[in-house]
Amino acid sequence: MKEVSFLLTNGVLKPSSLFTAIEVFEKANQFYTERGERPFYKIEMVGSDLTQHLQNSYFSIQATRDIKSVGKTDCIIIPATEYNKTAIRDSSEMIAWIVQQYKEGAEIASLCTGAFLLAATGLLNGKECSTHWKAQEAFMQLFPDLQLCTDKVITDSNGIYTAGGGLSSLNLVLYLVEKYNGREVALYCAKLLQIDIDRHSQSPFIIFSGQKEHHDEEIKMIQDFIETNIEEKMSVDQLADRCDMNRVNFSRRFKRATRTSPIEYIQRVKMEAAKRSLESGRKNVNEVMYSVGYVDIKAFRNTFKKVTGITPWEYKTKFGQA
């Protein structure tokens, strides 16, 4: 029997990722019990503070065991949590416990913003990792040296796993079930819970709102210009001229402020506008292309797919109004 320990962290837990992840493992156990076999997983909730509050809820949840009493576990799941510097600082005992369990052979998986606590352990150093795309800025402020890939739903490196945000983190739980039990069991869980088992990217769901949590007012002015002139073709040289800088200095300053190159920022802003137009259903793909300053359908398609992971036509089918 494989022991799976859901860690009730010191932050405020987000119940959706916790309860649905537990249910995936329970459905895997059901697969075996329906065949007259023993359950494969022993599921428990552990923590250092045995009672935890849940985000936007009127109730709390209680751990079954204190981490001090857990001698050895096979897999630790860190659910989504509201995390900040204070919560991480108050989690030193939990961080040490995670590191020790990993050294003793446990695998560690974070769901959504659970990646903040996992990052604080140092176990993600030198590895790709993911979290909810909306938490990207906060994550990079706390852990600027980590290789954050918010387009990915799952990362896997030497027994350390991270997942994207929201319910897409269930794809990591299915990934673990498939690894431990095989494809048949994972498909059984996915079908019962109606989860898209082959989702690999968060990109179609990302809402780009521009990185403006900086103090460079001149760069903010350029960002505003880009966002209010999406129908125009614009170059980095033109933007540099607007603030009397040469191209190289402007590009460095822009990336230092936004963590994004000017070209990438222009593309992200234009593709976000294109996504909104495709969602409304009132324009066809060519009309949307012209409205964001593109005239070459191949260039538009390639840029759109680079940003969202799917083509404009696929996006319109998936998210557009019928």
TrEMBL record:
Keyword Ion transport among record annotations: no
Keywords (A to Z) from UniProt: Transcription, Transcription regulation
Residue ranges constituting the HTH araC/xylS-type domain according to the UniProt record: 220-318
GO molecular function terms noted in the UniProt entry: DNA-binding transcription factor activity; sequence-specific DNA binding
A Pfam family annotated for this UniProt entry: DJ-1_PfpI
InterPro entries in the record: Class_I_gatase-like, DJ-1/PfpI, Homeodomain-like_sf, HTH_AraC, INH-QAR
Presence of keyword Transcription: yes
CDD domains reported for this sequence: GATase1_AraC_2
UniProt-listed SMART domains: HTH_ARAC (SM00342)
Superkingdom classification of source: Bacteria
Name of the featured protein: Helix-turn-helix domain-containing protein
Species per Swiss-Prot/TrEMBL record: Chitinophaga agrisoli
